[in-house]
Design brief:
Elements (H helix, E strand, L loop, with lengths): L5 H22 L15 E14 L6 E17 L2 E18 L12 E3 L7 E4 L7 E3 L6 H14 L9 E8 L2 E13 L2 E10 L9 E2 L8 E2 L2 H5 L2 E11 L6 E17 L3 E18 L12 E2 L13 H17 L5 H8 L7 H14 L1 H9 L4 H13 L4 H12 L6 H14 L2 H17 L5 H14 L7 H13 L1 H7 L2 H11 L5 H9 L8 H12 L5 H11 L5 H10 L6 H15 L7 H10 L16 E11 L2 E14 L6 E11 L6 E11 L2 H8 L4 H13 L5 H11 L11 H18 L4 E8 L2 E7 L2 H29 L1 E6 L2 E11 L5 E21 L4 E22 L3 E14 L2 E8 L2 E7 L5 E13 L4 E3 L7 E11 L2 E10 L16 E9 L5 E11 L5 E10 L6 E9 L4 E8 L4 E11 L6 E11 L2 E12 L1
Parallel strand pairs: 11-23
Antiparallel strand pairs: 1-2, 1-14, 2-3, 3-4, 3-5, 5-6, 6-15, 7-8, 8-9, 9-12, 10-23, 12-13, 13-14, 16-17, 17-18, 18-19, 19-20, 20-21, 22-24, 23-24, 24-25, 25-26, 25-27, 26-29, 27-28, 28-34, 29-30, 29-33, 31-32, 32-33, 34-35, 35-36, 36-37, 37-38, 38-39, 39-40
Main location: cytoplasm
Subcellular location: Cytoplasm; Lipid droplet; Secreted
Protein name: Apolipoprotein B
């Protein structure tokens, strides 16, 4: 017959494969019933799908901000419970404005964008017709997959039942939901119209998901209480084909109402989502191929990064407007603009990278404040990159890196950036920051990731497997390893093995060996570790502090055999310091009331049967453990225990403690014990220094003796006797030198002794809640000294710089922009889009300040204009990631400003103080509330209700050239049943301000002194206040004193009020030879005419 032909062979293979596939699918799910689905297998159904999301405030305005998606949907039924969904010709309509009663567009020009990334078909199964399982392609973006979830959720209808009403738990995009199903119409026994109502709060996946907020906000994380203030419901109407029972038409309407700003549960701030599916036709298919794929996911919504369309230009424009406020002085807008600036949270990392140089060029201080409060990874990464590019001081980089590491839930990008900074800086702050960020990262990503492996490789390279590298750096690395030991141990056991080699090796210094032992404090214990610690403890040749460090680490979780060996060998211990410490530690455990050491107490009691602990010796000379604990039982609650523990470890060859520790532990409500804080101090080499200072021939005793010898005989005997008795000085001692020379010789001797002695070493650490925050060394004081000297050199040039700045004139804006309240979260919607809700508060206190001094002309200018703006922003809206957004927003603003601008001049006996009249209204207080529709490209204010709109404006004279005015506007909508209550009635405002009338250019006050010498010496002092450009708005006060006639006269003139008052006081001498007598005459004048004369006499012998 010859070889088979290729075409025939291919046909046979295809036929065989189809037969095998058919048999496989026929055998899947033998318990499946055809009645469990409304679709027939080997059919393809065609639908037209529309989803519209809108946000607004019905009752206040008919306008709304909306987006719309349209798609052609094809559902291929490969088997009874295996479907394949495809979306084709999908287009999206970006934000537009429509009216609530209908969908009539108010703007005919709309933006269309193809959702081409929805080209992947989605496979899904519904085993038993209940739970829905999806098998998406790996390349399918999550937000597109969520939109397809919304289509599936709206399309699936429960199977036929005879009951008219029932409560079902159905799988939806919100998770498993309690659904009230009602059959509205039947044709025969077949339901043709069905309605389903859902309270979305009863769905198990309808939970708020936190989005980025400012880590510096004082009030944050209020997600749960804020989400409970949203009422969410969905209502679906289905029309079914009476013969084939498939869905002919489906409409689902969803409402999210923000209850604090609502009225009658149907008016107020809300978001709507409407989905509609209309059946087109059906066709037959003959392929049963399904191919489930590798990844299986559920129907419930998956959170994805809610990025808005790129808006670099808007962010840059906002920053430019903020910077221009220094010119326009419209600081009431400052808080609002900074709130808008934080929209850079929604930009991608690439967008921030390209935009950051331009932002810094406009205003680096405001940009830095925005980046710090951004709350997103792309912002924090660029902070460090920017500081490095500007070659900032290493200390500043250390501080910023450490603070960034403390922010919870770090993404991998931030871990990588801090890791790179730690490798470059290799400072204590950056390496401790690395340990903190690794611990925080592992809480949200417990799996083994590449970044953690890279960090492990770096740490292993730093300790060189035997810890024989640089002493200080190795010690630092071991402390850092101890801080993240639990995390790194779960990544790989290599790190703990290297640390054990450092413990067992004798090459590293004692300091390094102790640090290696303490690096195990968070790692789990095993036989290898326990044996290494036992060997270190029983090594009698090792120093005391190393042996006790190994003992304390061993007692974290010893076995019965370990405890038995310790108890048995303790009486034969040759080192009294070790023996006394271990005995006191075991005794404290046996007497402890702590809850979590009962197992250890049992092990010790078993080991001590038939034996006793050694007697605890003098605490002033021997190492010891101190312990106080208390346990309290509460009714119906788990007991609470607290412990305060301390260690004091002495060196056998010295009289000062070598190491000390204080720790507080709390155990509450059955949780694991928490170490609230722990402080440790260790040091050596202080004895020679103390001997040189306070020994018998030390600096202070010898100096005191010289001083006492010098004062002897120069003070009363009683004082001398007290000093001699107190300081032990006797007159038999010889003191040939005088006091000053003697003390100077003592200083020289002290310096010489200190140079010849060993330099003391000391270290101290602090731990909070088990996390070591860092440690300090004694020689850090040298670094602080260098910083202080550097600061002094800088300060020496400050007066000159200040003088130059003042003489040239300087005027600057000094403002702080702070987000003090920030809460933001998202919820799923039926269309698979994110409902975003946020509430934030921004405060921007500051002032415009300036000064200029002209020494030559004796003039000075001063400007001080403080102001503060507070803005509360509440936003409810829906976003299509990377495409469009729509929302409604309420802004509440409060503002205050005041200020002083003055010029001072001194010349020819005259001091003049000039205050220019305000050139614009000064807002002493203003408050406003506005509503806005937010779209992708702009934000428009919602016009207030016109009916019963109340406005007013009143001005009254306050001072010459100034009026104080109050103005306001609000809508009294109480007569309109559909209108919401305040503040949802539209724009509301109130203002109290000072308004210049334009009649006065400036206000001045001057004081002039003059001495007239023509006929008789007359001193004249004249005070003048005037509103310039108004001659009548002038007040003058003058004092004259005639030295010859001893006459004092004064006058006050205010032409604007027809005031011209004066006084003349004359003193005449009527004294006789044996009697002094004076006559005083006071004339009170009005318009230069004497109205009243008062005369008095004073005389005395």
């Amino acid at each position: 017959m010859g070889p088979p032909r290729p075409a025939l062979l291919l046909l046979l293979l295809l036929a065989g494969g189809a037969s095998a596939e058919y048999q496989l699918l026929e055998n899947v799910g033998p318990s499946c019933s055809k009645d469990a689905t409304r679709f027939k297998h080997l059919r393809k159904y065609f639908y037209k799908y529309e989803a519209e999301s809108s946000s607004g405030i019905p009752g206040t305005a008919d306008s709304r901000s909306a987006t719309k998606i349209k798609c052609e949907v094809q559902v291929a039924i490969r088997d009874l419970f295996k479907f394949q969904l495809g979306t084709y010709m999908c287009v999206g309509r970006r934000s537009f404005y429509a009216h609530f009663p209908s969908s009539v567009l108010s703007h005919p020009s709309v933006t269309m964008l193809s959702l081409s990334r929805g080209r992947y078909e989605l496979r899904l199964t519904t085993p038993e017709g209940e739970q829905v399982l999806l098998y998406p392609e790996k390349e399918e973006p999550k937000h597109i997959l969520n939109i397809k979830r919304g289509i599936i959720s709206a399309l699936l209808v429960p199977p036929e039942t005879r009951e008219a009403k029932q409560v079902l738990f159905l799988d939806t995009v919100y998770g498993n939901c309690s659904s009230d199903l009602t059959v509205q119409t039947r044709t025969g026994n077949v339901a043709t119209e069905i309605s389903i109502e859902r309270n979305l709060q009863k769905c198990d996946h309808f939970k708020p998901i936190s989005t980025g907020v400012s880590p510096l906000a004082f009030v944050k994380g209020m997600i749960r209480p804020l989400s409970t203030l949203i009422s969410s419901s969905q209502s679906c109407q289905y029309t079914l084909d009476p013969k084939r029972k498939h869905v002919s038409e489906a409409t689902c309407k969803e409402q999210h109402l923000f209850l604090p700003f609502s009225y009658k549960n149907k008016y107020g701030m809300m978001a709507h989502v409407t989905q509609s599916l209309k059946f087109g036709n059906t066709s037959k298919i003959n392929s049963r191929f399904f191919g489930e794929g590798a990844e299986e996911v559920g129907l419930a919504f998956e959170s994805t990064k809610s990025t808005s369309p790129p808006k670099q230009a808007e962010v840059l424009k906002t920053l430019q407007d903020l910077e221009n406020l220094s010119v326009s002085e419209q600081n009431a807008q400052r808080a609002n603009l900074f709130s808008k600036l934080t929209e850079l949270r929604g930009l991608s990392n690439e967008a921030v990278t390209s935009l950051l140089p331009r932002l810094i060029e406009v205003s680096s201080p405001i940009t830095l404040q925005a980046l710090v409060q951004c709350g997103q990874p792309q912002c924090y990464n660029h902070i460090l990159q920017w500081l490095k590019s500007k070659e900032a001081h290493p200390l500043l980089i250390d501080i910023i890196t450490y603070l960034m590491a403390l922010i919870p839930e770090p993404p991998e990008e931030r871990v990588r950036e801090i890791f790179n900074t730690a490798k470059e800086q290799q400072s204590r702050a950056t390496l401790y920051a690395l340990s903190h960020v690794v611990n925080n990262y592992h809480k949200i990503a417990p799996q083994r990731t590449q970044i953690l492996l890279d960090i492990e490789d770096y740490l292993l390279a730093q300790i060189h497997n035997d810890c024989t590298g640089d002493k200080d750096h190795t010690y630092l690395i071991l402390r850092v390893i101890g801080n993240m030991g639990r995390t790194m141990e779960q990544v790989s056991p290599r790190l703990s093995s290297s640390v054990l080699k450092c413990i067992e090796s004798t090459e590293p210094s004692l300091l390094i060996q102790k640090a290696a032992i303490q690096a195990l404090r968070k790692m789990g214990s095993n036989e290898e570790i326990q044996e290494a610690l036992l060997q270190a403890f029983f090594d009698g040749a090792s120093p005391v502090d190393k042996r006790l460090a190994a003992y304390l680490m061993l007692m974290r979780g010893p076995s019965q055999a370990d405890v038995n060996r310790i108890v048995q060998l303790l009486p034969w211990e040759q080192n009294d310091q070790v023996k006394n410490f271990v005995a006191s530690h075991i005794a404290n455990i046996l007497n402890s009331e702590e809850l979590y050491i009962q197992d250890l107490k049992t092990l010790l009691e078993e080991a001590l049967k038939g034996s006793q602990l050694p007697t605890i010796m003098d605490f002033k000379k021997f190492s010891r453990n101190y312990h106080f604990s208390k346990s309290v039982s509460l009714l119906s609650l788990d007991p609470i225990s607290a412990k305060i523990e301390g260690n004091l470890i002495f060196d056998p060859n010295n009289y000062l403690p070598r190491e000390s520790m204080l720790k507080t532990t709390l155990t509450v409500f059955g949780f694991s014990p928490a170490d609230l804080f722990e402080i440790g101090l260790e040091g050596k080499g202080f004895e020679p220094t103390l001997e040189a200072l306070f020994g018998k021939q030390g600096f202070f005793p010898d100096s005191v003796n010289k001083a006492l010898y010098w004062v002897d005989g120069r003070v009363p005997d009683q004082v001398s006797r007290v000093l001699v008795d107190h300081f032990g000085y006797t007159k038999d001692d010889k003191h040939a030198q005088d006091m000053v020379n003697g003390i100077m010789l003592n200083v020289e001797k002290l310096i010489k002794d200190l140079k010849s002695k060993e330099v003391p070493e000391a270290r101290a650490y602090l731990r909070m809640l088990g996390e070591e925050l860092g440690f300090v060394k004694l020689n850090d004081l040298q670094f602080l000294g260098r910083l202080l000297l550097s600061g002094i050199h800088i300060l020496q040039g400050v007066p000159r710089m200040i003088g130059e700045a003042i003489s040239k004139g300087s005027k600057n804006d000094l403002f702080l922009h702070y987000i003090f309240m920030d809460t933001a979260f998202e919820l799923p919607t039926g269309a698979g889009l994110q409902l975003q809700v946020s509430s934030s508060g921004v405060i921007t206190p500051g002032m415009k300040a300036g000064v200029k001094l002209e020494v030559a002309s004796m003039q000075a200018e001063l400007v001080a204009k403080p102001s503060v703006s507070v803005e509360f922003v509440t936003n409810v809206g829906i976003i299509i990631p990377d495409f469009a957004r729509s929302g409604v927003q309420m802004n509440t603003n409060f503002f205050h400003e005041s200020g002083l601008e003055a010029r001072v001049a001194l010349k020819a006996g005259q001091l003049k103080f000039i205050v220019p009249s305000p050139k614009r209204p000064v807002k002493l207080f203003s408050g406003s509330n506005t509503l806005h529709l937010v779209s992708t490209t702009k934000t428009d204010m919602i016009l207030p209700l016109i009916e019963n709109r109340q406005t007013w404006s009143n001005c009254k004279p306050f001072f010459v050239g100034l009026n104080y005015c109050t103005s306001g506007a609000y809508t009294n909508a109480s007569s309109t049943d559909s209108a919401s209550y305040y503040p949802l009635t539209g724009e509301t405002r109130f203002e109290l301000e000072l308004q210049p009338t334009g009649e006065v250019e400036q206000y001045s006050a001057s004081a002039t002194y003059e001495l007239q010498r023509e006929h008789s010496q007359v001193d004249t002092l004249k005070f003048v206040t005037q509103a310039e450009r108004l001659e009548q708005a002038k007040a003058t006060m003058m004092f004259k004193y005639n030295r010859q006639s001893m006459t004092l006269s004064s006058g006050i003139q205010i032409p604007d009020f027809s005031v011209d008052l004066g006084t003349v006081l004359r003193v005449s001498d009527d004294s006789a030879k044996d009697k002094k007598s004076y006559k005083l005459t006071l004339d009170i004048q009005n318009n230069k005419i004497t109205e009243v004369t008062l005369t008095g006499h004073v005389s005395y012998d």
